[in-house]
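Ligand-bound model needed. iron/sulfur cluster.
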Amino acid sequence: MARKYRKLNTSKDLTRLMTRYYATSKLVGKLRPLAWVTSGAPVEILIGMGIATVYPENYGALLGAQRAAVPLAQVAEERGFSPDLCSYARAHLGSLLAPGDAPQGGLPRPDLLVACNNICGTVIKWYQAVAQELNVPLFLLDAPYQHEAGLPGHAGLPEHAGLPEHAEQYVAAQLEDLIAWLAHHTGRRLNDKKFHQALALSNEAVTLWREIRELCQARPSPLNAPDLFLTMAPIVVLRGTKDAVGFYRKLKDEVEERVARGEGAIVEERHRLLWDNIAIWYRLFRLFSLFTDAGACFVVDTYTNAWSVSVDTTEPILGLARTYSTVYINQSLQARAELMSDLVERFGVDGVVMHSNRSCKPYSLGQYEVLEQVSARTGVPGLVLEADMCDTRLYAEEPTKNRIQAFLDLLEQR
Ligand code: SF4
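Prediction:
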């Protein structure tokens, strides 16, 4: 049978880049201070202070994709961590407790921990457990949940979009505390030149990433969600570096060439879909092939969209406070429904598929309400799939397939 999915040439560069990143992290950690940070941490500050960073969430995704998450999660569960906890947290904690069973022997040991609760409250307890286990200092950055604010930097959203001044000041003051705390624990100062360079590189990568995603408005779409889920890794772990910029320049060239040739990510695009929530890592291509085979391409998603907002560098600390406080899942359901409706309209989406992810409560709670609002505004139908991003024990193959088939039949009839 002819292949219905076009592989990106840039995927080879991605594999090389990420392999090098994990290999050098072990080495770099021996030469300068190393921090474990959450995906929404203001990493530009750490780069400006010469502190290396590693992302346990990205490692969690890797464990999920390699199907190594469950045995490690079980190690954490046996130690008393609840199976209801996020599977990134459980798998990572398992890798800490049983490094011999973890791919690459687990992550290099950190000197510091920096967690920001702009993505969830889980990271607070997760990082506290790590701090206790390894006896390393932890900084918790509190980014208050935005009940009112819209998502700055996103097209199609109301004028009031933005962070209230009191929240902005509150987070900015903590960023100043973070700089002092890092200096106290590492003896390093914030180097202004390095900090501004990191901000500029971060913004350049974010802009390229946003432009790449926007190119998927083309018909057929040059990328499908699995492409986005894989190529998002550098925007998470290499934000603020030349490596990320170099990779996204190359990826953008390839995507532009596809658009110019009228070549889609899948061979015959018949339906254009939106994906909501984190990928089901252990089923990435198998699950999406059910859609691909029916000519359904995920032209946009809300997850990889989260790293699309630049930092205002005219007032860097305030700019960081604004950008990192207003990530997608730190926003009200109303703001999420507005963003999703905007994406549906701009990308010509015919249907929405939501992953109700047992692990990620802040992402998954309220999805039915968001879907109702998006369907009412745009008229597109939706499907909710219940699973987990890493924990294969929460995935039921046959019911999932049946629900997808029924949804695809519905799209055919419209
Ligand atoms: S609960 Fe969700 S946001 Fe928090 S660490 Fe897990 S996957 Fe990430």
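The chain is about 50% helix and 10% strand.
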